[in-house]
Design brief:
The complex is a heterotrimer of chains A (250), B (402) and C (292).
Chain A: E1 2-13, E2 16-27, E3 31-35, H1 42-48, E4 59-67, E5 70-71, H2 79-85, E6 86-89, H3 100-110, H4 116-129, H5 133-136, H6 149-162, E7 167-171, H7 179-192, E8 197-201, H8 205-211, E9 214-219, E10 222-228, H9 229-234, H10 239-245
Parallel strand pairs in A: 3-8, 3-9, 6-7, 7-8
Antiparallel strand pairs in A: 1-2, 1-4, 4-5, 9-10
Helix pairs in contact in A: 3-4, 3-6, 4-6, 6-7
Chain B: H1 2-21, H2 23-40, E1 52-56, H3 67-74, E2 92-95, H4 99-102, H5 105-108, H6 115-125, E3 129-134, E4 145-146, H7 154-159, E5 163-164, E6 172-173, H8 176-207, H9 210-225, H10 228-246, H11 255-279, H12 283-291, H13 296-307, H14 309-325, H15 328-333, H16 351-358, H17 367-401
Parallel strand pairs in B: 2-3
Antiparallel strand pairs in B: 1-3, 1-4, 5-6
Chain C: H1 3-45, H2 50-54, E1 57-58, E2 63-64, H3 67-98, H4 103-117, H5 120-134, H6 141-165, H7 169-177, H8 182-211, H9 239-248, H10 257-291
Antiparallel strand pairs in C: 1-2
Classes of the chains: A alpha/beta (250), B mainly alpha (402), C mainly alpha (292).
Chain lengths: 250, 402, 292
C-alpha cells in the first residue's frame, strides 16, 4: 500500500514549468530522499505535498497527488487539516520567538486543543521523541532562541511531531547544522521512520545513502530515476544519475 | 463542524481586514467627491451676493459689465460710461446706504416701505446711475435695467488676475496671482534646496564614512519631523527680519522668505531620496570606473549621478510637491499679498495659505466658501499630478533595470 | 612637468575641492538643524515653568500657561490614533499577508500613496466638509481627530507593512505547516515578531499628528478657550495652532512672543522625544532580531 501517490504532476511558476510529469509513489514508514542539483525541482515537489506552494502567487499545478487515497488538491480538501497531517521541517531551524514549551504547544493550540493536560503530555512526548528532553527539561519556559542551532532544529521537529502527523517532510533539515548535530538529526530520522512516512530533500549524497530507503533523482524538473537507495547508488540505470552521484556535475 | 466555524471566523476576519485596507481608497474618493462638489458650486453662481442686483437706467446702452469692470467702476477708476462702451455720461455710483443722500427718512417711510419706489425715481432721473441694492427693494414695476452678470467660468477663474473674494458689489475671483505665488515660492525653494540637497546626498552616500553617515542621517531626518508651524515661527522671527535688513525692504515677509523656509523643509526629502538612489548604484559599476583610473569624484559625477538620475528627479519633484502643498510655514512668512508676483522680494500669497487664512471667515456654503474649495481642487489636482509624475519616473527606473 | 602629471594633479585638485564643498554643505545642513533647535531651546527654556505647563492662558495669551493646548493636543493624538492605528495595522496585514499580487493590490497601494501626497490643508477642507458639516460633528475633537487620523493613515500602513515584510517567511511557513490558519499565523507568529517595529511607526505618527496645524484649523481648533474639553464633541485648543495664533495674530504679538517661544519648545520636545524613542526602539529590537 502506497502512502503518497503522485501522478503526472506538472507545476508552473508563471510561464516557467518547474516540474514535468512527475509520477512517484512513496510507501508507508519509509524514508524517501529527493536528490539533484539546485533548481532541479526537488524542493518544489516536496512543497506540493503539503500545498505550501499555494502561498506563492501566480503558480499552478496539474496532475494528482493523493495521501492515504485522498486527493489533496481536491477542492473539498481542507488545507489546514492536510498540513496538520503532513508535518514539515525547514532548512534553517525556525523556532518562533516564544518559549520552548510554547513552540511545541503551538500546533496543538492553533488546532483547537485547549486541555492543559493533553497539551503538556504531548509537548513532553514530542520533546522526548526528538531526544531533546534531557537538554531542555529545566528551561522549558525560556526562549527557544537560547538553544543551539542543532537543538533548535530538533525542537522544530518536535514541534512538527506534536500534532501527530503521519507524513513528515524535511527540506534539507541539516544543511545549516554542524556535523555532530547533523548526526543526531540523522539518528532521529532513523528512529522516526518506525512511525512516520518521511520525505527528505538533501544536497548531501552521503546523507541520502545513510538514511533513506528509496531515492529519487531530479534533474531540470524531471524525475530521472527512482529506485531503492542501494540500487541508485550502486548501479544507476541512467547516465545522468551516475554522473551526478559520482560528482561529475551538480 | 469545528472546521466550519473556523472557516467562517477566518472569512469574517478577512473581510474586516479588507475593509480596513480600502479605507485609504475610500478616503481619496471621498476627498475628491467633497472637494469637487463644494468647489464646483462656484461655477454655477454669479459673483454677486445672493439677493442683490446691479441696475442702470433704462436709457443706458450698456448691457453687461465684467466683474473687473464693475470693480473699477466702484473703485472709481472708470468714471464715464463711454469707457465701457456706453454713451459719454459720467457714472453715478449708488449703494443702498447712499439712499440717505437723496431722500430723508420720512420720505422713505418708517420701515423703508417707500424704498423701492424711490429707487425707481432715482434711476429714472439719473441716466448715469449704477445702482447696487437688495432684491427686496426692487419694485414690482421696476423701471431700471438689470445688468447682466456672467456666471463665473472655469477659464475666468483660472485666468482672472485679481483675488478679492469679499469685494462689493462683485467678488473678484481670479486665482492667477495665487497660482503664480505658489509656483514662485515652490520653485524658488527647489532652486535653493536642490543643489544643497544633492551635495549632501553625494557626501552621505559616496564620501562619508559609514560611522559619520549613521550619525548624520538620523539628524537630517529629524529636520523632517519638525512641525511646519515651528518652521513658520522660526522663519518669522529669524529669516524674515534677516531678509528685511539685508535687502533693505519695507517688509521682510516676501516670496524669498517663503522659498528659504520651504527649502529647509524640502531638504530632508531631497537628501533621503537622492541618497537612496545613489546607494543603489551597483558596486561593480563604480569599481569598473575606478579601475580605469577615474578619481572618486569623476566616478561620482560620471557614473553615480547619471545612474541615479531618475531617483534624484523623483526626489526633486516630490520636494516641489511638498512645497506646493505646504501651508502654515508659508502662511506665516510670505506676507500674503494676492498680487501677481514680479519679484522675489515682494510679498506673495499661495493657494494653501489663502485657504488657511480665509476659510475661517467665509460663511458656510457661500460663494467665498465654495471658491476656497475650488482652490482646494486646484491644489489637489496639482499635487496628484506630481505624485503621478514621481510614480512614472520611479517606474521607468525599475523598467530600465530589467 | 609632464602633461600626464599635470592632469593627475588637476584631477586630484578637483576632487579635493568638490569633496570639501560637499562635506561643508552637509555639515551646514546638520548645523541648520542645530541652529533651529538651539534657537528655540535658548529662547524658550526661560519661559518653561510649572505654571507655563499647567496654567490657563491669561491676559490675552501674553501670560499664564498653555495647559489647555497641551490637553487639546493629547486628545487629538488619542482620537486620531484610536482610529488610525487599528485601521492602518489591519490594512497593512491585509496587504502583506492576504491579498495576492495583482491589480487589487496595485490599486490599493496606489490609492494609499495618493492619500499620502494630499496636502494637509486639503485634509482640512475635507474634514470640515465631511465631519464638521455633513456629519454634523461641528468643530470638535472628534472631527479634528478623525481628520488627523486619515492624514497619518498612510504613514501607519507603510511602517506596518515594512515591519511585516521584515518577518522572515519561514516563520509563516512553519506555522502554516502545523495546520494553523492564516489569521492564527498572523496573530500568533507574524504580528508579535513585527510588533516592536510597528510600535516605532506608531510613535512617529504621534509626533506627526501633534505637530500638524492645517487640518485642525477648521475642524477643531479654538483661538482661545480657557477651559478643558469635557467630551470629544467639544472644541479645543492645540499646541501648533496656539503657536500660529500667538505668533501671527494675537492681541499683542510682541508681548506674547515669550509664550510663543515656550510653545515652540514644547512642540519640539514632543517631536524630539518621539523620534528618539522610535530610534531607540528600532535599535534595541533590531539587535534582538539579528540574534536568531
Amino acid at each position: 500500500m502506497h502512502k503518497i501517490v503522485s501522478q503526472n504532476v506538472n507545476f508552473y511558476y508563471g510561464e516557467f514549468q518547474a516540474l514535468h510529469d512527475i509520477s512517484l509513489s512513496v510507501k508507508e514508514n519509509t524514508v524517501t530522499a529527493l536528490i539533484g542539483p539546485s533548481g532541479c525541482g526537488k524542493s518544489t515537489y516536496l512543497r506540493l505535498l503539503n500545498r505550501m506552494n499555494d502561498l506563492i502567487d501566480n503558480t499552478h499545478m496539474s496532475g494528482t497527488i493523493t495521501i492515504d487515497g485522498n486527493d489533496i488538491y481536491d477542492k473539498h480538501t481542507n488545507v489546514d487539516d492536510l498540513r496538520k497531517n503532513v508535518g514539515m521541517v525547514f532548512q534553517k531551524p525556525n523556532p518562533f520567538p516564544k518559549t520552548i514549551f510554547e513552540n511545541v504547544a503551538y500546533g496543538l493550540r492553533v488546532n483547537g486543543i485547549t486541555d492543559k493536560k493533553i497539551i503538556e503530555e504531548r509537548v513532553i512526548t514530542s520533546i522526548e521523541q526528538v531526544a531533546l528532553w534531557e537538554e531542555v527539561k529545566d528551561k522549558l519556559h525560556k526562549s527557544a532562541f537560547e538553544l543551539s542551532g542543532g537543538q533548535q532544529q530538533r525542537l522544530c521537529i518536535a514541534r512538527a511531531l506534536a500534532i501527530q502527523p503521519s507524513v513528515l517532510l524535511m527540506d534539507e533539515p541539516t544543511s545549516a547544522l554542524d556535523p555532530i548535530s547533523t548526526s543526531k538529526v540523522e539518528e532521529l530520522i532513523y528512529e522516526l521512520k518506525k512511525q512516520y512516512t518521511i520525505v527528505i530533500v538533501t544536497h548531501n549524497m552521503q546523507q541520502a545513502g545513510r538514511i533513506s530507503d528509496n531515492t529519487a533523482f531530479f534533474y531540470m524538473g524531471e524525475l530521472i530515476e527512482y529506485d531503492k537507495t542501494k540500487t541508485i547508488f550502486t548501479k544507476p540505470t541512467k547516465k545522468q544519475t551516475e554522473d551526478y552521484i559520482t560528482g561529475r556535475f551538480g | 463542524m469545528k472546521t466550519n466555524l473556523k472557516k467562517i471566523r477566518e472569512k469574517v476576519i478577512e473581510s474586516v481586514l479588507m475593509l480596513s485596507s480600502v479605507t485609504t481608497s475610500i478616503t481619496v474618493i471621498l476627498i475628491v467627491f467633497f472637494l469637487f462638489i463644494e468647489g464646483a458650486g462656484v461655477f454655477s453662481r454669479k459673483p454677486i451676493d445672493d439677493g442683490f442686483l446691479l441696475a442702470v437706467a433704462p436709457s443706458n446702452s450698456v448691457q453687461k459689465l465684467s466683474p473687473a469692470q464693475v470693480k473699477d467702476v466702484y473703485d472709481q477708476k472708470i468714471k464715464n460710461w463711454k469707457e465701457v462702451g456706453g454713451a459719454d455720461l459720467p457714472i453715478v455710483l449708488f449703494r443702498t446706504s447712499d439712499i440717505s443722500d437723496y431722500y430723508t427718512d420720512e420720505e422713505l417711510g418708517e420701515n423703508f416701505e417707500n424704498f423701492p419706489q424711490k429707487i425707481n425715481e432715482l434711476i429714472t432721473k439719473t441716466p448715469g446711475i449704477i445702482a447696487f441694492f437688495s432684491e427686496t427693494y426692487k419694485a414690482k414695476q421696476f423701471v431700471g435695467k438689470e445688468l447682466d452678470i456672467d456666471k463665473i467660468t472655469i477659464s475666468k477663474f483660472l485666468s482672472g488676475e485679481e483675488w478679492f473674494p469679499t469685494a462689493q458689489p462683485i467678488a473678484q475671483m481670479g486665482v492667477k496671482p495665487l497660482i503664480y505665488g505658489t509656483l514662485w515660492v515652490s520653485f524658488g525653494a527647489i532652486l535653493i534646496a536642490l543643489p544643497i540637497g544633492l551635495a549632501a546626498a553625494i557626501y552621505l552616500s559616496e564620501i562619508a564614512k559609514k560611522k559619520t553617515r549613521n550619525l548624520l542621517k538620523p539628524l537630517i531626518e529629524l529636520l523632517a519631523g519638525i512641525p511646519s508651524v515651528v518652521y513658520g515661527f522660526f522663519g518669522l522671527v529669524i529669516i524674515v527680519p534677516l531678509i528685511q535688513s539685508t535687502f533693505n525692504l519695507p517688509v521682510g515677509e516676501t516670496a524669498l522668505a517663503g522659498s528659504v523656509v520651504l527649502a529647509i523643509m524640502a531638504l530632508p526629502t531631497i537628501i533621503t531620496i537622492s541618497e537612496d538612489a545613489m546607494r543603489n548604484t551597483p558596486r561593480a559599476m563604480k569599481e569598473a570606473s575606478l579601475a580605469l583610473g577615474a578619481s572618486q569624484w569623476q566616478t561620482i559625477y560620471k557614473v553615480v549621478v547619471p545612474y541615479s538620475a531618475s531617483g534624484i528627479t523623483a526626489g526633486a519633484i516630490l520636494g516641489i510637491g511638498r512645497a506646493i502643498g505646504e501651508t502654515m510655514a508659508v502662511l506665516m512668512v510670505t506676507g500674503n499679498a494676492a498680487v501677481i508676483p514680479h519679484s522675489f522680494l515682494a510679498p506673495v500669497r499661495t493657494i494653501p495659505a489663502t485657504i488657511a487664512a480665509e476659510l475661517g471667515e467665509a460663511p458656510n456654503g457661500g460663494l467665498h466658501y465654495e471658491a476656497l474649495f475650488a482652490l482646494g481642487c486646484i491644489l489637489f489636482i496639482i499635487t496628484f499630478g506630481i505624485n503621478m509624475l514621481v510614480e512614472m519616473v520611479t517606474n521607468r527606473k525599475s523598467h530600465k533595470k530589467h | 612637468m609632464s602633461t600626464e602629471k599635470k592632469l593627475a594633479n588637476k584631477k586630484r585638485r578637483n576632487q579635493n575641492i568638490a569633496f570639501g564643498l560637499f562635506t561643508g554643505i552637509s555639515y551646514s545642513v546638520v548645523g541648520l538643524l542645530f541652529v533651529i533647535l538651539a534657537f528655540i531651546v535658548v529662547k524658550g527654556i526661560g519661559v518653561i515653568s510649572w505654571e507655563f505647563i499647567s496654567a490657563m492662558p491669561k491676559e490675552g495669551m501674553t501670560a499664564g500657561g498653555i495647559f489647555p493646548a497641551i490637553v487639546g493636543t493629547l486628545c487629538l493624538v488619542l482620537v486620531s490614533m484610536v482610529f488610525a492605528f487599528p485601521v492602518g495595522v489591519f490594512a497593512a496585514i491585509y496587504m502583506n499577508e492576504y491579498v495576492k499580487d495583482g491589480w487589487v493590490k496595485k490599486i490599493i497601494k496606489q490609492m494609499t500613496n495618493n492619500l499620502a501626497g494630499v496636502p494637509s490643508i486639503v485634509f482640512g477642507l475635507f474634514g470640515m466638509s465631511l465631519f464638521v458639516n455633513k456629519l454634523g460633528f461641528g468643530d470638535s475633537i472628534l472631527a479634528g481627530g478623525l481628520t488627523l487620523g486619515l492624514l497619518v493613515l498612510p504613514v501607519v500602513i507603510r511602517t506596518t507593512e515594512e515591519s511585516l515584510k521584515a518577518v522572515e517567511n519561514t516563520f509563516r511557513q512553519a506555522s502554516l505547516g502545523l495546520g494553523a490558519s492564516k489569521w492564527q499565523t498572523t496573530r500568533n507568529v507574524v504580528f508579535p515578531i513585527a510588533f516592536p517595529n510597528i510600535i516605532t511607526g506608531l510613535i512617529l505618527s504621534i509626533g506627526r499628528v501633534s505637530g500638524e496645524t492645517a487640518p485642525i484649523l477648521f475642524t477643531v481648533a479654538a483661538y482661545f478657550l480657557p477651559k478643558l474639553p469635557t467630551s470629544i464633541f467639544d472644541q479645543a485648543m492645540a499646541l501648533p495652532y496656539h503657536l500660529y495664533v500667538i505668533s501671527t495674530s494675537g492681541t499683542n504679538i510682541e508681548a506674547s512672543r515669550a509664550m510663543a517661544y515656550g510653545t515652540a519648545l514644547v512642540l519640539i520636545v514632543i517631536v524630539l522625544i518621539s523620534n528618539l524613542l522610535a530610534n531607540k526602539l528600532r535599535k534595541h529590537f533590531g539587535k534582538k532580531v539579528k540574534m536568531n
